[in-house]
């Protein structure tokens, strides 16, 4: 099984590449891309920070932030499709991966609380 930190890193790379494309678009696509970039790359950054958590509550807190960022990322991906800035075909795989990451992170939080 792939490490969650490696998986979130690979996801962040895909988000960066998507946002590079959005940055080339005029208008709101570029603005939404900046929001997506912040949230989508923050998932992995918080997973990395959790690895170095100073305590169990700190570990849980970092993963809770990662989960919130994953949910926000899903929101921006859905919005890009709903606003017809990018076609669903382009984003569906990213949305699925982000949803799966959110579920895994949620499971990590639940396990850590036990």
Spell out the blueprint of helices and strands.
Blueprint: H1 4-23, H2 28-51, H3 56-82, H4 88-113
Task: Provide structural commentary.
- The two termini are 22 Å apart.
- The chain has helices spanning 4-23, 28-51, 56-82, 88-113.
- By secondary structure, the chain is mainly alpha-helical.
- The model has no long low-confidence stretch (mean pLDDT 93).
- The chain has one domain (4-113): de novo design (two linked rop proteins) (Up-down Bundle).
Give a short overview:
By secondary structure, the protein is mostly helical.
Keywords:
single chain, 114 residues, mainly alpha, de novo design (two linked rop proteins), 4 helices, 85% helix, 0% strand
Query: What is the N-to-C order of secondary-structure elements (H for helix, E for strand)?
Result: HHHH
The overall pLDDT average reads: 93
Radius of gyration: 14 Å
Name given to the CATH architecture: Up-down Bundle
Number of strands: 0
Number of domains: 1
Which regions contain 5 or more consecutive residues with pLDDT less than 50?
Answer: none
Most strands sheet: none
- Which secondary-structure class do the elements indicate? mainly alpha
Strand content: under 5%
Global geometry:
elongated
User: In the CATH scheme, what's the topology name?
Assistant: de novo design (two linked rop proteins)
């Amino acid at each position: 099984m792939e490490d969650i930190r490696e998986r979130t890193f690979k996801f962040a790379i895909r988000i960066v590449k998507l946002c590079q494309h959005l940055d080339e678009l005029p208008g709101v696509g570029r603005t939404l891309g900046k929001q997506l970039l912040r949230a989508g790359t923050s998932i992995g950054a918080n997973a990395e920070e959790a690895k170095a958590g100073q305590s169990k509550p700190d570990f849980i807190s970092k993963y809770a932030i990662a989960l919130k960022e994953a949910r926000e990322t899903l929101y921006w991906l859905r919005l890009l499709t709903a606003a017809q800035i990018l076609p669903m075909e382009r984003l569906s795989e990213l949305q699925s991966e982000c949803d799966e990451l959110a579920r895994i992170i949620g499971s990590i939080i639940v396990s850590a609380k036990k």
